[in-house]
Amino acid sequence: MGVRQWIDSWPVYRQFSDGDPLGRGASVKSGTSAKLNPRVNTAEKVVKSVCPYCAVGCGQDVYVQDGKVTQIEGDPDSPVSRGRLCPKGSASLQLTTGSAREHRVLYRRPHGTEWEELELDVAMDMIADRVIEARRHGWQWEQNGLRVRRTLGFASLGGATLDNEENYLIKKLFTALGAVQIENQARV
Questions:
Q1: What are the alphabetically sorted keywords of the record (predicted)?
Q2: Do both 29 and 87 map to the same domain?
Q3: Which of 44, 80, 149, 162 is at 20 to 30 A from 186, Cα to Cα?
């Protein structure tokens, strides 16, 4: 490569010689970048979604190929985020495809040091038994002569990854069980 070709290959030189001083056009593209294809080119479909991390509700475009999520990007049509995602939202592909995602129930017994795998039905029965027992032992009909009909035996702390409808149903469930300590992290 001659000196002239070498200088012509510099993006900054091309910006000013091609009349593109802001570097937004072809002058900043390299030969390597011109050969690249977007990761989303092979997607069969794009599904509109909402980021599950916080209560902001940034829009996401979820790219799907062969029934599997291949990429998640900000939705430029979203009036909330206008195509932008925070670092957590940008990494939300790991929620679906990450190697650290668990697809089984793990349980560590009280005072135990090891995790053991449980069947989902067994784990759900354990949770139900503990809720019933905590409700039975912590139930209060009255306090200071006032009828309260509540339990302080358990509480609910919801997460911002749930949408309004899910949070509404959880609130109804815990209220029906007599819990009064119900909060959501999205409000904090």
A1: 4Fe-4S, Iron, Iron-sulfur, Metal-binding, Oxidoreductase
A2: no
A3: 149
List pLDDT tens digits, range 6-65: 777 777 777 777 777 777 777 777 778 778 888 788 888 999 998 887 778 899 999 999
Beta strands in the chain (DSSP E): 45-50, 59-65, 68-74, 105-107, 116-118, 139-143, 146-151, 156-158, 182-184
Please state, in angstroms and rounded to a whole number, the distance separating the CA atoms of residues 33 and 39: 13
Question: pLDDT digits over 68-103, tens only?
Answer: 899 999 999 999 899 999 998 898 888 888 888 888
Does residue 106 lie in a domain region?
no
Domain-located, residue 105: no
Whether residue 112 lies inside any domain: the answer is no
